[in-house]
What we know:
The protein is of the alpha/beta class. It has helices at 11-23, 48-55, 108-121, 145-158, 172-178, 192-201, 215-226, 253-262, 271-275, 278-290, 317-333, and strands at 2-5, 27-32, 37-42, 60-64, 84-86, 89-91, 95-101, 125-127, 162-165, 181-184, 205-208, 233-237, 267-269, 295-299, 337-338.
Amino acid sequence: xxxxxxxxxxxxxxxxxxxxxxxxxxxxxxxxxxxxxxxxxxxxxxxxxxxxxxxxxxxxxxxxxxxxxxxxxxxxxxxxxxxxxxxxxxxxxxxxxxxxxxxxxxxxxxxxxxxxxxxxxxxxxxxxxxxxxxxxxxxxxxxxxxxxxxxxxxxxxxxxxxxxxxxxxxxxxxxxxxxxxxxxxxxxxxxxxxxxxxxxxxxxxxxxxxxxxxxxxxxxxxxxxxxxxxxxxxxxxxxxxxxxxxxxxxxxxxxxxxxxxxxxxxxxxxxxxxxxxxxxxxxxxxxxxxxxxxxxxxxxxxxxxxxxxxxxxxxxxxxxxxxxxxxxxxxxxxxxxxxxxxxxxxxx
Length: 348
Ligand code: PEP
Ligand code: MN
C-alpha cells in the first residue's frame, strides 16, 4: 500500500500515519515526490480495514494498493527515476555509462594498459574481478586483495571509478574499501546474506541478474539491498540460460526494457556475458542502448587470446576504441549521451 499525503500535510500528520503502521508491525518508507510526500508501507500483511481507516486520517489524500511484489524497487511506490551516484558519475540520469575492463585483474601491466586505453577511448568506469566466481575450482579465481590494490592503482592513475565483484559477506568490508561500485555476480544474485551485507554498506551496488532468475526474482533481490536502506542499486542484465546453445547466454533485452518500465532503478546491460562472443558484443551493445539501457558493462583485454578468463568474449583495446563512437551515435539517437569520465583533470 502507499499512502499519498496532501501537499498541506504536516510532520504531525506523517507521524500519526507512521505510528499507526507501527502498531500493525508495518514499516513506513517516506518517499519525497515532486509535489507530495508518499509513505510506502512495507510488511507481510496489510489489513484491508487499515487502508480504509488511513484514508480518513488528517493530511492523507488517498491510499493505493501496490500490486507488484517488489515494493521499494518498483515504480508504483516510487515513480521517478533513481539516479545512482558512483563517485561523481551519475547512473540513470540520462547519460549512458560505459564500464569497461578485463574479466579478471591479472597483473599490473594488464590492468594499467587496459585502464589507460579504455579511459582514452571514453569509458566511464573501469571493471576487473579480483575475486572470481568460476565454474571449475581448477581455473584462475582472481588475485584477491592484490587485485583490489591494482584496481586502486589504476583508479589513481586514470580517475576512473572501479567496479569489482564481492562474493561473500565476510569480504564485503574489504572490497568496499577499494570499490566505487560493488558488483554482485549472477551466481550470487540470490545470496540473500550477501545482498543484505552490501545493503548495509550504503555503497552503490551493481546487481547482475542470475542466469536462471526470472525478472521478478531479480527485482526481489534488489529489494533485499534497498530494504537495508541502500537505494543505490543498478540492475544489470547479463544474459540468461535458455534452450539455445549457439551463444553462451541469451541476452534478454525484453528484461532491459521491462526493468526500465517496472522499476525506477538504473538498468545496464552486459553484452559480453550476454553473448559470450566478442564479435556479438557490438551489435548487442547497440541494441541494449536502443532498448533503453542506462549503460553497458563490456569486457576488454589487451590480449584476449591469453586472457585467464572470458577471453573469447573480450574486445581488444582497438575494437573497444572503435565501438565507442558507435555507442555515442545510438545514445544520441535516443536523446542521450555517453557520460564523461569523472575526474577530467587527470592527464593521461
Ligand atoms: C563478470 O562480470 O566477470 C562475471 C563473472 O559476470 P557474471 O556474474 O554475470 O557471470
Ligand atoms: Mn567475465
